[in-house]
Amino acid sequence: MTLKVALLGAGRIGKVHAKAVATTDDVELVAVADAFEEAATALATAYGARVASVADIEDAQDVDAVIICTPTDTHADLIESFARVGKAIFCEKPIDLSLDRVKTCLSVVERTGAVLMLGFNRRFDPHFQAVKAAIDSGQIGDVEMVQITSRDPGAPPPSYITSSGGIFRDMTIHDFDMARFLLGEEVDSVYAVASNLVDPEIGKLGDFDSASIVLTTASGKQASISNSRRATYGYDQRIEVHGSLGAVSAENQRPVSIEIATAAGYQRPPLHDFFMTRYTEAYAAEIAAFVEAVKSGKAPQPGGEDGLKALQLAEAALLSVSEKRPVSPAEVG
What family name appears in the similarity comment (predicted)? Predict the structure, then answer.
């Protein structure tokens, strides 16, 4: 059986997912929708799909599932609409910037029995999966501390800042999900500090560009996250997990993994320039996992609850920065 999918949103992340679909077995892109017809036409033409409206896709008999890559403020409404018509749903994070709206949306998903998978692609990165496998196999003993470094090569434009929900809901949310994934326990306390060291315009818009977060579980396990909107050396993505018997880490990746040694010293190629190339394998793997979940009838992971919990940690981080104290996720709902 080939799963036939429609792509909602033909922008940057939509293009990434279209490519992932094209490289995945048992799935076919049949329709593309976007508010900008030119973008939809270009992407549909490139992958042999048709241009359609969201309403057309809702009614389409040849569409089994949708991949939602539209602006964040449309996600919850689209999830609810496609849940009600019985189509499986893959949605980029977050479901919404409001915890209450996310909970309302998830209640519709539960009531309709819809399949919903959230786009936390880093869980599917082969290097990070190898870290998780080392933990699950017991090689490093009990997890005690997790360190996550996630730094973008440059700050986004102000227009993006105003619609993204801010660094914690937009950027750190991936790291919150990864911390939960690796810790194996829910976070009990969030302590965050944040400032503006990169672009003063970001501060004027009420957001931050540099942040450090410490997460603690009820048993005392810790995860520390380092975020920056500026890494002059490339897209910085590293993980280390320390356990009772040892440690496991995933280093930065490069398009070409070589090292040149001369009399002048050692040289290595630069890092990937951003997520589109760094996480190519992860995007393909998560689409493959979505396809398998739909075909098997098993609940996909990560699901809607994972999205809710990551957003709760983001809200707790914001409150922690504001009140300069540790915050329990329960405090923010």
Answer: Belongs to the Gfo/Idh/MocA family.
Q: What is the pLDDT of residues 22-40, one digit of tens each?
A: 999 999 999 999 999 999 9
Q: Contact, 329 vs 313, CB < 8 A?
A: yes
pLDDT (0 to 100) of residue 333: 86
327: left (phi over 0), alpha (psi -120 to 50) or beta: beta
Residue entry with tokens 């508010």:
35
Q: What is the pLDDT of residues 172-195, one digit of tens each?
A: 999 999 999 999 999 999 999 999
Task: Find all residues with CB under 8 Å of 112, minimum gap 6, and list them.
Answer: 83, 84, 86
Q: Which long-range contacts (CB under 8 A, 24 or more apart) does 69-74 make?
A: 69/7, 69/8, 69/9, 69/10, 69/11, 69/13, 69/14, 69/17, 70/8, 70/9, 71/9, 71/163, 72/96, 72/97, 72/163, 72/164, 72/165, 73/97, 73/163
CB 59 within 8 Å of CB 130: no
Does 159 have pLDDT greater than 90?
A: no
CB 252 within 8 A of CB 151: no
Distance CA 37, CA 122 (A): 31
Q: Are 89 and 106 in contact (CB under 8 A)?
A: no
Read off the pLDDT band of 137 (50, 70, 90): very high
Per residue in 244-263, pLDDT (tens digit) is 999 999 999 999 999 999 99
Residue 40's alpha-carbon distances to 3, 22, 27, 320, in angstroms, are: 21, 16, 19, 41
Cα 153 to Cα 49: distance, rounded to the nearest angstrom: 33
> How many Cβ atoms from other residues are within 10 Å of residue 183's Cβ?
22
| 144 three-class SS | strand
